[in-house]
Structure formats: structure tokens, C-alpha cells
Amino acid sequence: MRFSSVLPLAFACSAVAVVIPSPKAAWPYGPLVTDGRWIRNTKNEVVTPVGVNWPGHGEAMIPEGLQYASINKVLKDIKSLNLNIIRLTFSIQMIDEIYSKGNDTTVKESFLKALGTTNGTAIYKKFLQKNPQFDDTTTRLQVFDAVAAEALKQEIYVHLDNHISRAEWCCGETDGNAWFGDTYFNVANWKRGLAYMADHGKAWPALVSLGLRNEPRNATNNPTISKTYNWETWYKNMIPAANGVNAANPGLLIYFSGLNYDTTLAPITTGANLGSGTVFRKSDFPYSNKLVLELHNYQTTATTCPSITNGLYNGGYNALNATDPKVKNVLPVVMTEWGHDMSNNEYKGVYQTCLDSYLGGLKAGWMFWEVGGSYYTRQGKQDFDETWALFNHDWTNWRQKASAESIKEMAKRTLAGTKKL
Ligand SMILES: *[C@@H]1O[C@H](CO)[C@@H](O)[C@H](O)[C@H]1NC(C)=O
Ligand SMILES: *[C@@H]1O[C@H](CO)[C@@H](O)[C@H](O)[C@H]1NC(C)=O
Ligand SMILES: *[C@@H]1O[C@H](CO)[C@@H](O)[C@H](O)[C@H]1NC(C)=O
Ligand SMILES: *[C@@H]1O[C@H](CO)[C@@H](O)[C@H](O)[C@H]1NC(C)=O
């Protein structure tokens, strides 16, 4: 289904969308392209994505927190921390349901289904109170549309991330979403869902990039599928998925995540044999200036910085280093997830200070996990409290001011002097 058939409501009432200027003439000065290890806009400035994750892939399939805060407030607060991008996560199930029903599901129906009639009704009422532009006809995708429209107003880039297939908390090796062909990871539906969102996102000027799949990992409880857990299978699936996204929306940067929960892209950067002679060569892509690598790091208990950075370099950050003779594919690398408990003093510890100096030194982008202080529901618990969040439980204030300030300062350091590089 094309986006035009599900889009009209949110956009009909949005002044922003109606007056979309020629993309090159205004922010975000897209489409963005890569140039060696850098990402550039149409003004030839370096764009370094520095931001935060905003999950929308949970059971309700609606960006989290909107029963507590307006879209406008969430983005304003994000912006106040010097952050320039949101990683907006979605599940393939949302698109599967659009195809099977012939229409997107309303927010109301979705809350009731995810939270039960009593709690779903109560949460939906709060959602409308905080976000009165919506009503009973508003669908889930129209909420994503509204986030993207507000992001444009506030000049915050949007990065779409396919986080999982079945809408639920991610990620485990036994959750059925681990690897291509796993119980809930239908490859054809995944590719269809990616292309759908890429196409739909053409109506979102703030959308600059899309991540193909969050944290590929071994499906250890699935003997048939775990046999195929290797780089060659990764390549065979990721390349056609990327081709589909590029065909649907040639403007997007496409992010590739690696094995072991996206902690390594080692054979991609060095152009090693992935199996049967398959090799990742940037030059093989007709859209080679659209490829970006993404890595995650959660070594929160590290006691020394080199124990983090040595692994990062060999795991994929070497792609930033054109003078390293082992590196065959020079590409931008963005740490699309890292994070820790924000309710205590962890922000002062080895882990954050190390990433701060390493990524700041490299001038490499990152996205903190995550913005919201609670989930509609997570792992069977409604209104689940998230201590690894910028916001407190009810999204009214920072969870701890000093933790949030440290993110603001880190963003400032990463971004310092980058535009003119
Ligand atoms: C799909 O949604 C639109 C807009 O909300 C509505 O007008 C239409 O009747 C719906 N179609 C179906 C098949 O439910
Ligand atoms: C509904 O919400 C209440 C708190 O408002 C909570 O105690 C209860 O567990 C929720 N119901 C379900 C089914 O999760
Ligand atoms: C994947 O998991 C299976 C089942 O536990 C295991 O036998 C296999 O060695 C794992 N593959 C890799 C590459 O770790
Ligand atoms: C890049 O690679 C060169 C050659 O191996 C090495 O000397 C240099 O330290 C590397 N730079 C970084 C920032 O790692």
C-alpha cells in the first residue's frame, strides 16, 4: 500500500507538510550523502548525527511517552541538550498489519489491544489530553507522521530504525526475532516493511536515514536458523534489503548493523571473505555514497578505556581511518546505541567518559539509549520504569539533571568544529 492511502489526515492539518520547500533550499539540506568517513549535506557541511533513541516498536507500536508529554515537548527537550537527531524505532508488525487489514490501525484500538480495555482506555485518554491534535481516527503511522513533522519544525533529523519484527521489547537470542528466518523474522515481510517505511518517509523532509535491522544475533534456540548465523547470510539478506530501501527512497542514508547484537562489523570494514568468496565492497553499490555503518556498545562495567576502544576500533571504527592499510571500505560509523543508568552517577564513570573522549576525538556520531522514562508496556509490565533514560518516569523532567547535562556537554564536544571539516 502506498503512503497516500493512509496519510491524508495527519498531513491535511499540518501546515508544515503543505509547504514543503525544495529540499535543497532549506533545512535539512538533504539528501545527505557520504564522503569518505563523513556525512555531508547539500551545503557541503559535515553532518554529525548526535542524538537519542525514541522507541516506537513496542506492543502498542506508537512512539512512547505520549500519555505523559506532547510530541512538541519531547522534541523541544531533546533539542535543548544540543542533540540533532532522533532514532525512531518501529516494528515490522505495524506494516504487516497495514497490509493484512488494508489500513493502519487507530491509536485507540492499538492501546486497547496492547494494554487491555480498562488501562488502554485510560492511557488513550491521557494521550489525547497531552496531544489534542489527535482523535479517534488517528492511526499509529499518523503519530509517526506527526513526530516527523514536528522534528522538521524544530530542525531535528529523523533516523528510522527497524528494531524488531514482532512488536515487543528487544533483543534476545531466543525471542524469535534474532536472525533472518527466525520464528517471527519473516525475511520477505521485513523487506516489504522496510521499503514501505522508506517510501512513506518521502513525505517526511526531516527523515535522512534508515537502519535496516537492529542488533542481528544468533537464534540459539532455533537449530535450523542458528546454522545460518554467519556473515554470508547477513550479506545475502542485507544487500537486497538495502536495494529495496534505496529503490523506494533514493534520498536516504542506509545504516548497516553487524553481528553479535551489532557489536562487530569487522569483516565489512576490511573487505574480508564473508564466505564462499562473498566480499562487501562499497564500490559494488550503485548508491555507494549512501552507506553508513552502525555499532552498539554497552560495556558499562569496563574499568579501563582501552578495554572499550581497542574492541571498537577493530570492530568497525577502523572504517573511519583511510590510512589504515587493512581498511578496504572507508565509511562513516555511528554508535546508534549506548547508554547506562541515568538515575545515579554512572555518567561520571569510565564507560561514558571513555565514549565521550573517543567519539568526540573521532568526531563520530552517536545516539543515546534512550529518551523516555517509561514504556506503555514492556516485558509484560505496564508503565514500565526506565532508569536508562533522559527523562524521569512521567517525562516531565530529566531523571537526574546532572546526567542529562553530561549528555548535553558530550554532544557539544562531539559537534565542536565539525561543520567545516
Ligand atoms: C481506511 O482509513 C481511511 C481513513 O481513516 C477510511 O476513510 C477508510 O474507510 C478505511 N478503509 C478501510 C478498508 O477500513
Ligand atoms: C493497569 O494499570 C494498573 C496501574 O494503573 C496496574 O496496576 C495494572 O497492573 C495494569 N493492568 C495490567 C493488565 O497490566
Ligand atoms: C549459534 O548458536 C548455536 C546454538 O547455540 C551454536 O551451536 C552456534 O555455534 C552459534 N553460532 C555462532 C557463530 O556462534
Ligand atoms: C590509522 O591507521 C594508521 C595506520 O595503521 C595508524 O597509525 C593510526 O594510529 C590510525 N589512526 C587512528 C585514529 O586510529
TrEMBL record:
Record protein name field = (Trans)glycosidase
Biological process terms in GO annotation: polysaccharide catabolic process
Q: Which Pfam families match?
A: Cellulase (PF00150)
> Which keywords appear in this protein's UniProt record, sorted alphabetically?
Glycosidase, Hydrolase, Signal
A molecular function (GO) held by this record is: hydrolase activity, hydrolyzing O-glycosyl compounds
According to the entry, every stretch annotated as the Glycoside hydrolase family domain falls at 67-372
Q: Which family does it belong to?
A: Belongs to the glycosyl hydrolase 5 (cellulase A) family.
Leader sequence range is 1-17
